[in-house]
Amino acid sequence: MSNKFHDAINDELELDAHLQEAQAEASQNVICHKSQGLSNNTTELEKNLEEAELAIYYFFNNKFDEAKSIVLPHANTSMYHSMGRAMFSFLEAILTFERAHILQAGDELRSCLDICQKYRHKNTISESIGKKLKRTAYSALSDMEAHAELCMAEALLLQALLIFAEDESLTTLIKGGVQINHCYNNYKECTLTLSNREWQSQISKIHFESGVRMGMGTFNLMISLLPASVIKLLQFIGFSGDRDAGLEDLNRGYKTSGLRQVLCALTLLGYHLIVCYILGHQEGDLVLCDDILQTQLEKYPHGALFLFFKGRLEFMRGNLVTAEHWYKMSWRSQNVWPQFHHLSFWELLWVNCLKVDWREASLYASHLVESSKWSPTIYSYQKATTMLMLPNLTHNENQIIDTLMTTAPTYKQRIAGKSLPMEKFVCKKIERYFCQGKWLCLPAVELMYVWNTFTVLSKQHSLADGIYQIIECKFNELKNLKTQRIYDADNIALCLLLRGAFYRQMKKNSLAIKDLKECIALKNAVKDDKYIIAFANLEAGLIYADENQVDLAINTLEKIKKQYTRFSLESRLHFRIHTALMDLRKRVAK
Q1: Contact call for residues 183 and 122 (beta carbons, < 8 A)
Q2: Which of 235, 272, 350, 382 is the most exposed place for a label (fewest CB within 10 A)?
Q3: What is the pLDDT of residue 524?
Q4: Gene3D superfamilies from the entry (predicted)?
């Protein structure tokens, strides 16, 4: 019995050993399979990123068909290919503004979000509990799952922007706001993911970082530009806006070799060459822009967008002939997307206005009227105003102007439930045109001021004389009128504002302040153009800032917000006041 018992015990122990070996082998196989799965996912991700890079290279060199041929075959299975297809459709929708393209882009963005959802991390029960307790297990994410979160944030942002273009209801506005909030939270999570996990592939980390820098940088920059009252509301619901942090992120994203490096470059160019001049009063970082453009034009020598920004850089430097050359190169670099031409036509219109070549300016205005659907109201009015500056108009030209003025208001649009402020301004000016017997005071020069192109005058004083003579001549003509007319005060105030703004650009501050104070003194006599008085105060405040009278500048700008409301272009003025106050308060903090 004893021997049998010992034999049985030995058999049991041997069986247990075999079972433990089998379990260990099975566990090792599971680990190996999981590791193999992660390896396969990493390889698949790197291949997708490589193809996305190639598609971007083709796209920004105007090889649009080649770019599409890369993204379309796998757009229903790969998130990066799907994102590429959706981006193509989004750009087409925004550039054409046609409803069919907007709907198609919406469908493809929804498809992209569905694909991203499939690749997202599926939480275990313990991870779900941790998430509720605000403890996200970033280490549990694979590289593929991290990129799914990033692509989802980008697709949500594009979807929100598209929603605003789709219709004008309050429901749409709320829906778009919710999408942007969701997108912003995704980007914040991606920022934490970047620094709180071990990356399986350094390549995927670099591409991921460029996306995080681009997203958070753009959000911070955009929000920082909004007026203080809006920022306070956004901060209450979780948004934040820090211009310096945004620019720092975008610069870091631009200096990486990641997939979104080119988008960081374009955002920086857009901010420093366009936003700074339209919404602010100080010039952008032209040295940085020059550096970016040299690098990007080596990589994308035929890229319509980079050729355009090269033209814009020269325009902001006051080199109008050189700017004209680059804008035309951008325009003629491709014909697949003629909507890109409209960017150059817009700029060439203002280049020729500064050159006082009204005939050439009206030619580019005509191109916009005939081929762009962005704002026929604004385009029609701009063409009419450039023609009104021509001497000795023919009967046929007068008829064309009357037709443009009559039809322009019929094209008025609403976006995100709101009328465009510039279109409202244009419609009021058209009413004035007919009220004044088909005449307007310096209409094209007024638009040049409104679009802030006067800043270029300070770079090339030789350009300035032509504009000055036009303003001076009209002002003297109005002052010498023997009979009074209903809008005389409005027209004289406009001339004083334009001349005062001109003097500020020429650094003739005492002359500028004299004109601006005379303009402000007409506030009770001005009948319609109340915006003129508010903007005259802005110009005075900017002069005080230039003279380093910081307290006086801040008080003047703050007073405008309290004393002047319900006038044309009020939101544009508030943007400019906000950027000026940001700079002034930074000086005080130092």
Answers
A1: no
A2: 235
A3: 96
A4: Tetratricopeptide repeat domain (1.25.40.10)
